[in-house]
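Researcher: Structure prediction, please.
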Amino acid sequence: LKPLDILTTAGANADIATALNTLPGTTRVGEEGKLFVRGGAASETRTYLDGLPVQSPYGGATAGVPARGRFSPTLFKGAVFSTGGYSAEYGQALSAVVGLNSLDLDPETQTGISLLSVGGSVSRTRRWARTSASVSVDYTNLAPYFGLTAPDQRWAQAPQHLGGALRLAHRTGPTGMLKVYATYGRQTVATRQPDPEAAYAHTGRLTALQNQNYYLNTTYRSALRRGWSLNAGLALGREHNAVQPEPQRLAETEQTATARLVLTNDSASTWYNLKVGTENTAQRYDFRYQASADQPVYTPGFLERRTAVFAESDLSLAPRLTARAGLRGEYSALLHKGNLAPRLALAWQLGAAGQVSAAAGLFYQNPTSDLLRVQPALGFERAAHYLLSYQYTTSARTLRTELYRKDYASLVRFDRYNVLDKSAYNNSGGGYAQGVDVFFRDRYQTFKKVDFWVSYGLLDTRRQFRGDLAAAVPTFAATHNLSLVGKYWMQKLHLQVSGTLAYGSARAYYDPNRPGYNQGRSPSYQSLDLSLSYLTHLAGQFTIVHLSATNVLGRDNTYGYRYAATAGADGRYAGVPVRTLAPQFVVAALLISINKKSPGDTSVAPD
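Model: Predicted structure follows.
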């Protein structure tokens, strides 16, 4: 998706992950706000920024408040979303990869002012001949909004966020480019959510969150001699979460450093190229847990050093047949284990617009930090991908359909009733996911003034991992997922109307009052989102007036149920529905671009 695809998609509210959730292969897990791809957990999708992995692509989240992505889509050329069979360049992702490629030099000097009903931001960009620099600051405070629209909701502190970003780009020569990108964010929120435990039946359980995140990404690329090119980068990240789910106190700090070096030769031969690279990651994780104020403090943590090497080649096997063969190897000092992941993709061209392709490969990932802090003596989790797809692409239309199968092995399991029992942690879990995804996009072809796309995914999946009592459909997977996104441009009015209709079939949840495991089924997910964008000039400056509303029909989307840990006097476990605290959301924005050389054409659709 291009940046304006994300910005103008109704319901996305300029969030990359929310916009990607309108594409096939995803399940909308509304209470989380993250990407869940083809039966995989959110941790199985890895975000890469300019080739470097991002340890924490989302902001903090707590019960009833879904997460949002950390990055503004305006900073990137676009978002590449791969739902399987991806390049050997990418590791530590069992299900999907989101590739973000930042802009090189900013096109011109300008100032941006965004005034929102929930906050605002200001940015300044300066462009020289070979260098550009930009700085931005944003602030969001939802307290006035919820005080006006939902005064009865249980906010102890409505969400607040303060953040800033700095970006530098410098052209070092005819082919050289140095880029530096740094961000900081601070977020606070506190809620009183309904809780099934008897002690909180009337007041709700207080959960408070404070999140701080620092991120630095530096990359350099340049052409070398004899057809070789260099791409090098360094990423540093630090995230701190302080969470207080009454009466507990938790604090975790994760620090990562990743260095990457890639050499590519596109003239190695007339029928193949060569790409080789290495990636080295150092990670420190610290955790602090206290069950209550009078209980001892539990402080586990770990250090990880992981090295990866990869090689890949694009091959021209015949006039219409191409292939990509790759091999990735990793070694984890924490796990004391290594792996080799071969990957292969084939593509057969069918005329000027059609293509049939197939791909297969192995993909490995470390267990997540919440598992390694208890038991570091685990192994890699693994998934094998098999894909067969057909794609038809013209300048105005795209049709893509893909069959896939994903086999999981070595997933981590533990005792759900004693999560601190190290001896119960092992890699005995497994599962599968299979299905078909269909995507069709039409840009002003069928309807002269309408850009629309339709996404559908059919998913069949079962797994046993983490604290699962048996192999079952996971709680984050829906069999049917459908999205219809449309954007209608009214040239005479300088107005774009956008709509998103989303549907997800019932999801599983565990009801201890019934026999079996994950046998409960939530209602289906349904949402209609609308937005308006009016292009104009204010005091001679290009301006967009934007209005967005989610779930305009007011559907009460329930994502499952949570149950008490112990049964009541009647022998039944009390339960409460899982919902978000803001099932509907309306935001108005005034976006002003100052000092642009070109004032902006208000008669052209924003695409």
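Model: Residues 3-594 form a domain with the Maltoporin; Chain A fold (CATH 2.40.170.20).
Researcher: Thanks, that helps.
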